[in-house]
């Protein structure tokens, strides 16, 4: 029985640690602020490896593609980025939040 | 994120200990703060709030911008007694976000047929709790009415600082229970933490209604951890 109630298969931070142990380069995205109706609360994670594999979520699937693309940059440069998504964003057609909310995502390299 | 910080954070989460990951959004530096660690100033107050509420968020402190990610263990409810009340309590509590495990050495009570989809231990509490210790993010409700089964678990729950400890029984039954727990070496102040008669007073009559009353009391205890209760003196 798993009395910790951690989901070993789907928990993004456990997966990130596992990837790291297997020698992969990893980026971690974290929702740090939300305004209005946002699908994932502050603290939610998306983890990405250098091949573009990812686990977890920072939205209901609306902006994950954009975060994954940025993550490859961050893995390369090692420089953290703050990303903002929302309907007011000029890229709304591609990656806006259809729910009308706004989110701020902190994207950093592991190590 | 620092690889060592990630390892430390995951180790805390696997051990069911609360931790707050503090990230300086200016320079990206991060660290893990454990519950009970002392952090000074505005940042310390914000971290304390994160532990209490379990909410993550950005804070401005000491002229810098931090993100506090609160990792609290999932609260859970251990029920001693595979009785009628538990049959109603298990699904209700699970829906409310408090997964339930049931312990009852009486194998006639603890049957999967009576408790579909509930982790069930037809064993003595001392054996189960030796394998799976209680902790501060666990609630324990003892509802067998049988001192041989309930008493050990109650004392273990007090020692483990379970956020909620409740015991079924009238005031008279509880008075006798207090005597027994004192004889077992439990402290007076600890014993006073036991909720008995069990459940919020809503006039509950049926087993299912008593389950509602118990669940309400568990939620109240969890959401008010570390807060001054209304009407209580300092």
UniProtKB/TrEMBL annotation, chain A:
- Could you tell me which species this protein originates from? Mesorhizobium retamae
Q: Which InterPro entries does this chain map to?
A: MoCofactor_Util/Proc (IPR052698), XdhC_CoxI (IPR003777)
* Limits of the XdhC- CoxI domain: 19-86
Phylogenetic lineage: Bacteria, Pseudomonadati, Pseudomonadota, Alphaproteobacteria, Hyphomicrobiales
Q: Which PANTHER family does UniProt cross-reference here?
A: ALDEHYDE OXIDOREDUCTASE MOLYBDENUM COFACTOR ASSEMBLY PROTEIN (PTHR30388), MOLYBDENUM COFACTOR INSERTION CHAPERONE PAOD (PTHR30388:SF4)
What is the protein name stated in its UniProt record? XdhC family protein
Automatic annotation (TrEMBL), chain B:
Q: Which Pfam families match?
A: XdhC_C
Q: Check the record and name the Gene3D superfamilies matching this protein.
A: NAD(P)-binding Rossmann-like Domain
Specify the XdhC Rossmann domain's residue ranges.
77-218
Database matches in InterPro entries: MoCofactor_Util/Proc, XdhC_Rossmann_dom
Please identify the protein, giving its name as recorded.
Answer: XdhC family protein
Organism listed in the record = Mesorhizobium retamae
**What high-level taxonomic lineage is stated for the organism?**
Bacteria, Pseudomonadati, Pseudomonadota, Alphaproteobacteria, Hyphomicrobiales
